[in-house]
Design a protein that fits this description.
two-stranded antiparallel ribbon, 3 helices, 62% helix, 15% strand
């Protein structure tokens, strides 16, 4: 598994076209977890995404984007991420079932 390079130049020769194409090899570079951890990968990624945006926004609105912003943002992230992770881990499957019941085919 190659983790250092995201893009790879691959020489291809098609009918009438010879050149280098930039090929994105998603599976080779980003499959970091075995498939059995998919139920944990989603809450981890979702909570990081959500908490990063929300703590940054709330910290910026409440205290301004002045000196010390990144340390205040990190402190808010550090406190909020475990809470968000557990809420998503426990709540996401239930909320998905509720959303299915509330929607019409």
């Amino acid at each position: 598994m190659k983790l250092l390079c995201v893009f790879e130049l691959v020489a291809r020769s098609n009918a009438g076209y010879n050149g280098l194409l930039l090929v994105y090899k998603f599976r080779d570079y980003f499959m970091l977890f075995p498939r059995r951890f998919a139920k944990l990968a989603f809450p981890i990624l979702m909570s990081i995404y959500m908490v990063t945006i929300m703590t940054g926004l709330v910290t910026g609105v409440n205290t301004g984007l002045n000196e010390g912003f990144l340390s205040r943002w990190w402190q808010a992230f550090y406190v909020a991420w475990p809470v968000a992770f557990m809420l998503i881990l426990v709540g996401a499957p239930r909320l998905q079932r509720l959303a299915l019941r509330l929607t019409i085919k």
